[in-house]
Amino acid sequence: MLIKLLFIILLLLMVMCLFRALPAIIKGQSSRPLSHYLGRRLLIAVILFGLVVIALMTGVIQPNPNPYTL
Fold first, then answer.
1. Dmax over Cα atoms in the chain, in whole Å?
2. Which keywords does the record carry (predicted)?
3. Which helix (H) or strand (E) holds 15?
C-alpha cells in the first residue's frame, strides 16, 4: 500500500511541475527557464518508472495477467 501512495505522490508532483511551468509558457518570462521545470518533470518520471520496474520485479505489485477480460 505504501508503494501505491508513493506512486500517487510522484504523479501529483509531475502535475504540480506542469502547473508551475504554465505561467512561464504563457507570459514568456519567468525567474527560472522553462527547461528547469521540464528537467524536474523528467527526473520525476524516471524515478517513477524505476520504482514501477523494481516493484514489479520484487513482486510488490502484480501486473494484470489478462487485461482484456472482464
1. 50
2. Membrane, Transmembrane, Transmembrane helix
3. helix 2-27
pTM: 0.78
The closest alpha carbon to 10, from 34, 37, 46, belongs to 46
Residues 6+ apart with CB under 8 A from 23: 30
User: For helices 34-58 and 2-27, what crossing angle results, to 10°?
Assistant: 160
Helical segments of 28-59, H only: 34-58
**Tens-digit pLDDT string for the chain (70 aa):** 899 999 999 999 999 988 888 887 888 777 778 888 889 999 999 999 999 999 999 999 988 888 787 6
Euclidean distance between CA atoms 27 and 30, whole angstroms:
8
Please list, in sequence order, all residues whose beta carbon lies within 8 angstroms of the beta carbon of residue 46, skipping any fewer than 6 positions away: none
